[in-house]
């Protein structure tokens, strides 16, 4: 080894010493992340096993995004059982945590329902999520008072129900002016309900039931309010008679024995001395009654009962015999009449081997063989007179003669007539509805044309457009766009040989919104109504959007329930005797029945007559529900139940119904 100068030897020794010096301790960032991981998996190790125990102020670090700090702060006080596995990585990816949904890096939706959370909803935690739209903490075991929520100005949906919250009604809720849905039910709130609830003018869903609220019911006047319940509290006094409160049933106010007024049909201020019901006479003791009967003062009740029973039984038997005789007589007459007729005119199948002219020359409801026979027996000229009227703004793409030469294929027979698929020589395909002249004859020719002119201008993505119409020689045709994917009836019920399974919840929500959009448009854009809403009158367009057909046509006829028994269950009580009494409120009723059909997969003829509280359990049973998306299901069933209320005045408008559906859609994060 060559000799080294002393200074060089000293420098080499210094270098060797530097190599053996240990590394510095980890940076504060990595230490912080390590402790945060430990906190999320082992909260008890750092003092989070009791809500009163102050937590380590790790979450206030400026190294974390503010929304992540808020979520972790909430967890430290509300998740004492460690159910939420919130873990951070080097990217701080809190938007992928359980129940969290973000938009542009900010938390807009937090749904932690049914997580078994135990603890408190602490201040300065979730209340700092100023972009939050939806907050649901329902079905947990959270307790304590509700913190100041004024820091959530964008909140639209708030579910805090089925917990153990206590205290008075949170006054900060009155500052949430965008609030649409509020549910504080099944808690331990006390005190009075604030009159300021009326400032929440966008509310369409308000449940405060099953608490211990006292005082009076506020004079709510929100026109959009469709769901309301304050039952099972300690409320008292007269219920204000506002248009909003008057439309709800007694069940919305039940189990408040001191409430009174017109809404609950209970007079206020009744005196117990002057207005009490007469006392029920007390029956005499049994021995005294027997003695009176033995002395002939009172006749033995059994003899009188037996005589009365015999008279009633004889009357019933005689009535049944008479009815059976009448039915037998009518059956015999009908059979003889059928034997005298050459053939039945009942519509059967259609192979599509004839054209529209053959159809129009046949009796309404005839099949191919009947077409040929009737043309020989009673020849009719081709239907070429009259004008094919195109709806306002429509291009005249074909003539009546071209339509008559189109090949015809039977699609189905409905309440008002028969529908065909017509394929023209140009390959243009339309649907042609041939109205039953016997049912629409009550409407004159001029009235028919005026009505179809009004219907023809309706245009909406969820309506099958009326392109043209025709009237001549007792014939009336309506021409629609052809929809290739069949009807909602076929989609729900499938083949009769197989048990159809209810549609997935996202499909139900989409179809429910489409139908509500179409109905709301009809009601708002005109003074018309659909009048014949049912699953077979909802068609699926090219992109499977739901479109209404046969709208505004039923008012041209007067159809009795016997004419279409399959549709009778869709009819509102006030419109069952005559379709000409149908209104926009009866459309809402039909929508409620259709919604239940959509959710349960059962035709309305199979729906049991259930009270609103029993409907959700029945729908879950029909869906064989395993708890998936339980909240959306309950909300949709509630919409269906209020739409199908017996009283038309208590039903919401279709505009309100549409708003409810859209709020449910937003709550579930559907685009």
Provide a compact summary of the structure.
The protein is of the alpha/beta class and 671 residues long. It has helices spanning 6-20, 28-41, 66-78, 243-246, 286-294, 301-340, 356-361, 368-377, 400-405, 437-440, 445-456, 488-493, 505-525, 584-600, 615-623, 630-643, 654-667; strands spanning 100-103, 106-111, 118-120, 134-136, 141-144, 157-159, 164-168, 181-183, 188-192, 205-207, 212-215, 227-229, 234-238, 258-260, 354-355, 388-390, 407-413, 417-423, 429-435, 466-472, 475-481, 538-540, 546-548.
Describe the 3D structure.
Helix 13 (505-525) packs antiparallel against helix 14 and helix 16 runs antiparallel to helix 17 (654-667). The chain is an alpha/beta fold and 671 residues long. Among the domains are: 346-482, Phosphorylase Kinase, domain 1, CATH 3.30.200.20; 487-671, Orthogonal Bundle (Transferase(Phosphotransferase), domain 1), CATH 1.10.510. 32% of the residues lie in helices and 15% in strands. Residues 19-60, 271-307, 336-352 and 365-385 have low confidence and may be disordered. The chain contains 17 helices and 23 strands. A hairpin with a 5-residue loop joins strand 18 (417-423) and strand 19. It is globular. The strands form four sheets. It has a seven-stranded mixed beta sheet, with helices on one face. It has a seven-stranded parallel beta sheet with strand order 3-5-7-9-11-13-14. It has helices at 6-20, 28-41, 66-78, 243-246, 286-294, 301-340, 356-361, 368-377, 400-405, 437-440, 445-456, 488-493, 505-525, 584-600, 615-623, 630-643, 654-667, and strands spanning 100-103, 106-111, 118-120, 134-136, 141-144, 157-159, 164-168, 181-183, 188-192, 205-207, 212-215, 227-229, 234-238, 258-260, 354-355, 388-390, 407-413, 417-423, 429-435, 466-472, 475-481, 538-540, 546-548. The N and C termini lie far apart (79 Å).
